[in-house]
Design brief:
The structure is a single chain. The protein has 208 residues and is α/β, with parallel strands linked by helices. The protein is 20% helix and 24% strand. The chain has a six-stranded mixed sheet, covered by helices on one side.
């Protein structure tokens, strides 16, 4: 299965210069947050594949104008063609506002998911906005990752961990692709395509 992941910046390649051929072969689109709701609605309309999303720390506007035709996977395990996808949006709390959490608040969200995780026997893809703690995150509070995300990876060994929030413009610390234990880590900033194989996962990354 070929999956397009997006986050943080609307791609001119897809939005301003769109042609259906650019999404040819894409089976699923996943947003890791901080994108215009109209952009997500545009993609779901013209791609004819599902668009799943979680919230970034700047997505409070979704409350009034959510992405039409898209599926919010916050705080749940969404199963698509047998792939178990767990969504946890938001960033570390650094100011008043929606979709920001302390470490303990994020831990409480995860704790409420224990039965879903137990029932589904884990998950294959973890989708978040913020990165995991000390796994390609920033040292400033707004861009610091969550320790609980590392705990989830270490305990359940998902095949992929997708996140955004850390931008290419932040410099040499930006990593599009990494690996932590058995989990492939992808920073979805702007756009990235990877392949999910049920038995032998591989990541073929490209930004067309």
């Amino acid at each position: 299965m070929k999956i397009l992941v997006i986050a943080d910046k609307e791609s001119e390649y897809l939005w301003d210069y769109f042609h259906k051929s650019k999404l040819e072969g894409i089976d699923l689109i996943i947003s890791c947050g901080d994108l215009d709701s109209d952009y997500l609605s545009f993609l779901v309309t013209l791609s004819s594949v599902p668009v799943l999303y979680i919230h970034g720390n700047h997505d409070g506007k979704y409350e009034k104008s959510p992405p039409e035709g898209c599926v919010c996977i916050e705080d749940q395990i969404y199963v698509y063609k047998g792939i178990r996808i767990l969504g946890l949006g938001g960033s570390m709390r650094y100011s008043p506002g929606t979709h920001q959490y302390t470490e303990w608040q994020m831990r409480a969200r995860v704790a409420r998911l224990w039965f879903q995780i137990f029932k589904k026997r884990g998950f294959d893809i973890l989708v978040t906005h913020a990165p995991a703690y000390q796994l390609n995150d920033g040292r400033d509070l707004p861009h610091q990752g969550f320790q609980i995300f590392r705990n989830l990876i270490e305990k359940y060994h998902p095949k992929f961990f997708l996140h955004g929030h850390v931008h290419l413009s932040y410099g040499r610390n930006f990593k599009r692709y990494d690996k932590y234990q058995d989990t492939h880590v992808i920073n979805a900033y702007e756009r990235c395509i990877f392949e999910f194989e049920a038995e032998n996962p591989k990541s073929s990354l490209r930004a067309p």
